[in-house]
Write a structure and sequence with these properties.
binds adenosine-5'-triphosphate, two-stranded antiparallel sheet, Isopropylmalate Dehydrogenase, alpha/beta, ten-stranded mixed beta sheet, 11 helices
Length: 361
């Protein structure tokens, strides 16, 4: 009997459904080759379009469906012209992060041969590192809680020992997995601003405690400003970088820039029990409904879902399929047979997905 995994699917807004559809087709295509596991998909409503229609952005039944699932696959959400009465955008992805305590935002930055990169990569080097953005506290802890008076506004940054310990443990575990798969250097860098803020000195102290438990790994520190510089000057020297929420938010867009844009940037938000896999980009309403969206970030996020399920359940077949799917996307990019407009081509979303599928056979 194959092991069944229930995948909660959120199709999202704007280009969301357009990139989710081919992603699920590719996941189904992978499944037809094996026999060890089967993915069962169930769609749940949420997002800005749903809010506009019903007044609910994340219904309780959708939240419960996500809670019960083995993994959550989420497409781009939110629309600039659909807002809550207080003016903020509809973002169920942030609600899920809070609800499930998804503390580790994993943002791989990988540039494969043939993939556009604004930098000139030296011979023999490659860009392949991962940013881990703490995703439940830091400066974002203050979201919706800031104090504003006539002449002053205050937002509070929060770092807790409990979350930081989990975050750093996760970072070293990821460095271990990367090294085992031949991709990582066994290095973890804590990115902070410990020279200025006490909260970051505390963050760094907890990092050092965790580092001491991993003698076989290189543990380094870097200030966030220097990290921004080095991401442009020598990104090939990086492996696993772990940082606070706001710093990670900013650096991960810089990482997406290194990969040729948001259409190439996948992500995972991981907690103790649940994990959400979604592209870094938004719902791109400017190109929605035209078949112009690049589905690569969504497909690569689905590959990360297979990695996570494979490691969690120690299933080699699932891990292998994650690698197959990622390799197929990169083959499609390198082959330059059907690039979407954001990558300088003229292919549609489905054309690109078809080429990815052709590399799975
Ligand atoms: P959010 O705040 O929700 O993250 P945003 O306002 O930053 O969203 P996006 O929706 O991510 O913006 O879009 C930014 C730009 O990138 C737009 O011009 C959009 O068309 C483009 N873009 C985003 N995702 C893709 C994609 N998958 N394929 C092609 N272009 C994309």
């Amino acid at each position: 009997m194959p092991r069944g995994f229930n995948i909660a699917v959120f199709e999202g807004d704007g280009i969301g459904p357009e990139i989710m559809k081919p992603t699920i087709e590719l996941l189904k295509q992978l499944g037809t080759n094996g026999g060890d596991y089967v993915l069962n998909f169930e769609s749940f409503p949420a997002g800005a379009t749903h809010y506009a229609e019903t007044g609910e952005s994340l219904p309780q039944s959708s939240l419960q469906g996500a809670r019960n699932a083995d993994a959550i696959l989420l497409s781009a959400m939110g629309l600039p012209n659909v807002r809550y009465p207080d003016g903020t955008e509809i973002s169920p992805q942030i609600d899920l992060r809070k609800e499930f305590g998804l503390f580790a935002g994993v943002r791989p930055v990988t540039v494969y041969p043939g993939q556009y990169c604004p930098l000139k990569i030296p011979e023999g080097q490659s860009i392949d590192f991962v940013l881990i953005r703490e995703s439940t506290e830091g400066l974002f802890w203050s979201q919706g809680k800031g104090e504003i008076s006539e002449n002053e506004a205050r937002e509070t940054l929060v770092i807790t020992r409990e979350t930081s310990e989990k975050l750093f443990r996760f970072a070293f575990e990821l460095a271990k997995q990367r090294r085992a798969s031949g991709r990582g250097k066994g290095k973890v860098t804590c990115v902070d601003k410990a020279n200025v803020f006490r909260a970051f000195a505390f963050f760094r102290k907890i990092f050092n405690e965790e580092a001491a438990r991993h003698p076989g790994f290189t543990a380094e520190h870097a200030y966030v400003d220097a990290t921004a510089l080095w991401m442009v000057q020598k990104p090939w020297s990086m492996d696993v970088m772990v940082t606070e929420n706001m710093f990670g938010d900013i650096l991960s867009d810089l990482g997406a820039g290194l990969m040729g844009g948001l259409g190439m940037a996948p992500s995972a938000d991981v907690g103790d029990n649940q994990a959400v896999f979604q592209p870094c980009h938004g719902s791109a309403p400017d190109i929605a409904g035209q078949g112009l969206a690049n589905p690569a970030a969504m497909i690569l996020s689905a590959a990360m879902m297979l990695d996570w399920l494979g490691h969690k359940h120690e299933m080699e077949a699932v891990l292998k399929d994650g690698e197959r799917l990622r390799a197929a996307v990169h083959a499609a990019i390198s082959g330059r047979r059907a690039l979407t407009r954001d990558l300088g081509g003229t292919a549609t979303t489905d054309d690109f997905a078809k080429v990815v599928g052709s590399y799975l056979n």
